[in-house]
Design goal:
Elements lengths: L1 E10 L2 E6 L3 E2 L5 E2 L2 E5 L3 E5 L6 E9 L7 E7 L2 E7 L2 E9 H12 L6 H16 L12 E5 L3 E5 L10 E2 L16 H9 L5 E3 L2 E2 L4 E2 L9 H4 L23 H6 L11 H7 L12 E7 H12 L6 E9 L5 E8 L3 E5 L1 H7 L10 E6 L2 E7 L7 E2 H9 L4 H8 L4 E2 L1
Helix pairs in contact: 1-2, 1-3, 2-3, 2-10
């Protein structure tokens, strides 16, 4: 099975370097190793898939997030360009297991513990295939507004018109085969080949995030209102439950798998650009009232004036807010769900929507927990479990209750 991965869109020209061997287009023209400027539709197929590769110099990763940057990436498989009204779309057609290998080495580091890489191979393969196995996977941006004072949006698995998945965080990170620099990545994919995470026999829509903050979140906090049994909330640690309010939980630094300060472990499990993000388990950010007002205006096109208060109206089990009242000097507005709140309260995206609000003269301080939506597998928590000797089946059972691997 092949996967078509969208690498870039809306380009006027594609500069590509062919490496290691020749490629052939659909007319039989051969392209040898070297650099090319492509401006029209073409499909280039490697003559020797194991020896040929192509490199793109300016792929944007982390689009819209605080780690956004451009980098050179190297890919195997076919290179395909489509001409659209907005420009050229760059697509990589690649074998599914090669895609999975790149994903697990891009989402995390190829030096991760083997059992984490196995767990990630299973869920990345499952996430990709769930919609192709007649599963119910939400696939649209939903925008629900009422009386002009409430904006509730969630951003889910939008269907891509020209390819199966994109290469960035919107789907799964896919940053080419050069990321697969460790034999353990190949071993993890081989050991789990053909295995999927299943619930009552059906392939799971296996969500994951970087750090849950100590408690994973339920599906409906981030996306549609329906409950997904295996995407429920679990405590990220050996304890069965927590005491106190979620606000107290966020203000504290409780024991949890993902509450690790081990620089050595994090250097082994996180890609280099993720290591730039510090204090992801508990974090703090503060804004002036004017700064927040400008952010809301730029993100939503609504001028509330200086922001006087942020009032959480509804939280999920992990403390993530999915309905938030924003009180300005001119007006007020209710926003949600989780990602829309993060998008509106940051120039890029807030680490998470699990935060408490502290008020100071002309300032609002947000103290938060976790990094990402928190649903499903917690990547850093799973890394700690694997490093402590837990196998990939135990890891998957912890984060996806009631599931099996088959």
């Amino acid at each position: 099975m092949n996967v078509s991965v969208g690498l870039a869109e809306r380009l006027s020209v594609v500069e590509v370097e062919l490496i290691g061997g020749s490629f052939v287009d659909s007319f039989g023209q051969q392209y040898g190793p070297g650099r090319y400027r492509l401006t029209s539709e073409v499909r280039l197929t490697p003559t020797d898939p194991s020896a040929c590769a192509f490199a793109l110099a300016d792929i944007t990763i982390g689009i819209g997030f605080h780690w956004q940057r451009n980098e050179r990436q190297v890919f195997r498989g076919c290179l395909r360009l489509l001409k659209r009204g907005s420009g050229l779309t760059v697509i990589n057609d690649v074998a599914m297991e090669e895609y999975v290998a790149s994903v697990i080495a891009s989402e995390m580091s190829p030096t991760c513990p083997l059992e984490l890489l196995k767990a990630h191979a299973v869920i990345s393969r499952s996430w990709l295939c769930c919609s192709q196995a007649n599963q119910t996977c939400a696939s649209e941006v939903t925008d629900r507004q009422s009386n002009g004072y409430e904006i509730i949006r969630w951003y889910d698995r939008q269907k891509h018109a020209d390819f199966d998945v994109c290469a960035d965080d919107h789907c799964q990170r896919y940053q080419g085969f050069a990321k697969v620099s460790s034999q353990r990545v190949t071993d993890a994919v081989s050991a789990t080949a053909g295995l999927f995470l299943r619930y009552e026999g059906a392939i799971c829509d296996a969500r994951f995030s970087k750090c849950c903050g100590g408690i994973t979140e339920r599906y409906s906090t981030a996306w549609g209102d329906a409950d997904v049994p295996y995407l429920s909330s679990v405590v990220d640690g050996p304890m069965r439950s927590v005491t106190g309010s979620v606000e107290e939980w966020i203000r504290s630094s409780p024991p949890a798998y993902c509450n690790t300060t081990s620089a050595e472990l994090l250097s082994r499990v996180l890609p280099k650009f993720d290591q730039e993000t510090r204090n992801f388990f508990r974090w703090k950010i503060d804004y002036s009232s004017e700064e927040l007002g400008n952010l809301i205006s730029s993100k939503l096109g609504v001028d509330l004036g200086r922001i006087q208060d942020l009032v959480p109206l509804a939280r999920g089990p992990s403390g993530r807010i999915y309905r938030l009242r924003v009180v300005g000097e001119r007006d007020q507005l209710i926003i949600g769900k989780e990602l829309e709140i993060r998008r509106c309260l940051s120039p890029t995206h807030l680490y998470s929507s699990a935060f408490v609000v502290e008020r100071a003269p002309d300032r609002l301080i947000l103290r938060g927990a976790g990094w990402g939506h928190g649903v499903g597998l917690c990547q850093i928590g799973a890394a700690v479990m694997a490093d402590a000797g837990r196998n990939y089946l135990e890891i998957l059972q912890h984060y996806y209750p009631g599931t099996t691997v088959a």
